[in-house]
Amino acid sequence: MMLKNFALSEKIVTFAHDILNVQNINCRRKHSMSISKTRQKLVDVARQLFAKNGLENTTMNDIAIASGKGRRTLYTYFKSKEDVYYAVIESELERLSDRMDEVAARKIRPQDKIIELIYTHLNMIKETVMRNGNLRAAFFRNIWMVEKVRKNFDEDELEILRKVYAEGKADGEFDIDNVELVADITHYCVKGLEVPYICGRLGHGMTPETAKPQVARFVYGALGKALVKN
């Protein structure tokens, strides 16, 4: 009987420990979510201030006051205005990355997916720059700073392109030998088109609807004659 009671007590203690562990995990998760929300709030407020007043004319004190979080909270997350600026760029690139992931997940032919990825990239970059008002000048002026921050996004985009090209090659849609090389070329070509596209110099006078078929024909031609198949 004593052995049974001892075994039962052990189970109760173990169960209690499990409950406490779950509670601790939930507490840590809630704390982490709270930190994430606070940080994102600061980033969102900073982006709006940068867009309205410009990067140079916005101070850490401005961000602290506008966010309602105070200087101590702001400096808990960011050491300087440059750190906040990096975070703003990262946040904007996450929006772009999410849209690229959505396109990559669509059930469409690889040849159509490539064109959609190209235009999604260009349209989202343009939207990002245009919606940020006075911050857009900083995007262009601090291009090397932006490049440092967008490194992870570039890697993610390259991985998406590789997968689509590999799929198209396996399906016989793309007549290419080196998937990684073609993905690299596509990625850097699209990056090179960002500024002309934003400024409206790409296909001057043409709408995206009229330009898209010609862009597709150009891209398809570069990917090989296998694309003429229906």
Description:
With 230 residues, the chain is mostly helical. It is built from eleven helices and no strands. Mean pLDDT is 79; it is low at 2-8, 11-34 and 226-230.
Count of DSSP strands: 0
Helix count, per DSSP?
Answer: 11
Strand residues, percent: under 5%
Average pLDDT, to the nearest integer?
79
- Measured as a percent range, the helix fraction is over 70%
Shape: elongated
Computed Rg: 25 Å
Query: Secondary-structure element sequence?
Result: HHHHHHHHHHH
Main sheet overview:
none
Unreliably modeled segments: 2-8, 11-34, 226-230
Taking the alpha carbons of the first and last residues, their distance comes to 78 Å
- What would you call the structural class? mainly alpha
Q: Which structural traits does this protein have?
A:
11 helices, 0% strand, disordered C terminus, disordered N terminus, mainly alpha, 230 residues
